[in-house]
Structure formats: structure tokens, C-alpha cells
Amino acid sequence: MFIERTSVGLDVHARSVAAAAIDGVTGELSQARLTPSHDRILSWVAGLPGPVAVTYEAGPTGFGLCRVLTAAGIRCEVAAPSKLQKPAGDRRIKTDARDAVHLARLLRLDEITAVAVPSLDQETARDLVRAREDCRADLMRARHRLSKLLLRHGLVYSGGNAWTGKHDTWLRHEALPALTSHPTRLAFDAGYETVLATLARRDRLDVQIEQFAADSEFTAVVRRLGCLRGIAALTGFALAVEIGDWHRFTGRTIATFVGLVPSEYSSGESKVRGSITKTGNTHVRRLLIEAAWHHRSGYRIGKTLRDRWDLAPAAARIRGDEGNHRLHQRWVGLVERRKPHTVANVAIARELAGWCWSLAVMDSMDD
């Protein structure tokens, strides 16, 4: 509920900030063009009739401004851009000043849907996880470029899975000598060097993430999530830092947050459901979909899973075992109904999200 006297909307950019303030007593509208300096923004807000509430859209500038304002005792809401109501008449006119005024009005009407502001430790851990995610994508692109270079020259590896030790030997001792053109060999060297450098960078990040997963504020959640198949330290740590506060969801709503629920177009007696919405956190959605594939094979408790269980409390092990049984049975049922494997896997990922939630909110306890 909005209880402050003045509502402030900020349209924040890298080099400028458009600010608008509405005084609820006098109805006066104040506008300013500010620098992105937090001190400058705080000084301007402090000069307004108080108490004051501030909002700005979530974006690439991060949450530092919100933390500064909150530390100064000013309520700040970081608005979810996808949830903002846009007047139909403003579609052809968009300026920073108008956006700031619009935000200030929405804040006063309590029409702001706020995003969860992560703690500083959570945000820095998220930076590390996303650096690894970027590295994974870079490695995939580098490998594709190298393999397509060889394909253009009729060289295709057929000795098993690609990007293994055997494949690497083939690249160096068979593929490279088969390239007769000197410029092409130089292109191969550049591509191969990029693959090796990116792979080494990814491995370094993996080691660092595993160290954080073993000794950080997220360790307890990571160990409980590890009771499920397909969720080792890297995946568990990424889920923990991307979700942050699991208690703001339920077993049903978390699938909506990561965009794993079907889209729906219903009117009157007609009800049509389509593909998943793909809204929300794309990183979490990809991790869950990849982890879901592990539940397709028969459920056996191997050494890797048992080692992860040894680090978790007994209640989490029991809950994880129930989830693993349930998810594999769901896979079998969907296959028997002749569902396409990709469709079945998304359904498993949707349910897996709920099992992850149940483990994450479970109170940690010693055996």
C-alpha cells in the first residue's frame, strides 16, 4: 500500500537519469534530468517533501541504486518491466521524461510489480554463474565454427562422440594434415586455439564455482538439491543463486516463474493450450530442462548420487529419493503415451522445479 507523500519515478540509463516526483498533497509535478551518480540522485530525492517512495525499472544498471536508497531509509521498488501497464495512447510517444512520470503515477496507484532484489552476495555469486554460462555458450560456438570449417572441406569425424580425447587426437593428427591450403590451416589453428582457451576458462570457472558451492551461504541449499538426479554442485549452485529466496514461491508457482507452464488462449467455451510460455528466468529454465533428461533412464543409486546424499540431511535424502522415483515413473508414463521425448522432458522439468522447491525450503537439519 502506498503511504508516502511523494512518489518518484526514475528512468535510469547508463549516462543519464530522468526523474519525476508527484506530491500527493499539493499535486505538484517536479521533473529533473540527473546524472547516474547515486549521491546526486539521493540528494535530489532527499530534497523532496517526505516521506518519499521511489521506483525504477529493472535493467542493466543493476540494483546498486536500490540498495543506496534503502540504506538511506527511502522505500524503493524495482519494477518488473514486463508487468508495467502502458497506456494505449502513449504507444507512439516515448520519452525518458514521460516514462519517469508514468512510473511515479503507477507507484502511487500501487500498480508496480516489484522484482526480488538480491543481496550483494547473491548478486556477485550470480555474476560468477553467468560468467560460466557465457563461457559455455562461447565454447559451443567455437566448436561449431571449427567443425563447420572442416565440414566445408569434406572432413567429418565418425569415430564416436565429438569433443572427446579420441576426437581431439583426430583433429590434430588426421584433420589438420588433410588441409592442404595454408590459409585454411591458419584458420584451423585459430579456431582450435580458441576451443582450447575457452575450454580451459570454463574448467577454471567450474573449479571456482565448486569451491563456492562447498563453502558459502548457499551450501545447505545446494546439498539438499543434490539429492535429485541431474543436479550436481554446479547446477545446484546456479539454481540457488538465480532463485535466491525460494520462499516467495510455492511448488506450483515456481514453474510459472521459469516459464515452464503451457501458454493458454481461452475465451468463452474455447480453451486452447500451446507451447510453454518461456517467460521468467531463462538460466533456471535451461538448467531444469537439462537436468530432467537424467530421469529418463532407470533409477539406480550409484556412487555419485550416494556421495551427494552423504552431504545432505536425512530428510532431504528421503525427499530426494521420492522425487527420483516419481520423476522416472512420470517419464515412463509419458513414453508409454507416445509423447515426443522433447515434450515429455519439458513436462518432467516442470515437475522437477516443484521438487527442487520442496527441498530448497526444507529446514536444514543434522542427521
Q: What layout of secondary structure does this protein have?
A:
Elements: E1 6-12, E2 17-23, E3 29-34, H1 38-46, E4 52-57, H2 64-71, E5 75-79, H3 96-108, H4 120-152, H5 165-178, H6 182-214, H7 219-225, H8 233-243, H9 253-257, E6 262-267, E7 270-276, H10 282-292, H11 303-310, H12 314-336, H13 341-360
Parallel strand pairs: 1-4, 4-5
Antiparallel strand pairs: 1-2, 2-3, 6-7
Give a written overview of the molecule.
This protein has 367 residues and is an alpha/beta fold. It folds into three domains: 6-108, 2-Layer Sandwich (Nucleotidyltransferase, domain 5), CATH 3.30.420; 120-214, no CATH class; 219-360, no CATH class. It contains 13 helices and seven strands. β2 and β3 form a beta hairpin. α8 (233-243) runs antiparallel to α10. The radius of gyration is 26 Å and the shape is globular. The mean pLDDT is 92.
Look at the helices and sheets and give the structural class: alpha/beta
Total domains: 3
The biggest sheet, with number of strands, parallel, antiparallel or mixed sense and barrel status, is:
5 strands, mixed
Helix share bin: 40-55%
Range of strand content: 5-15%
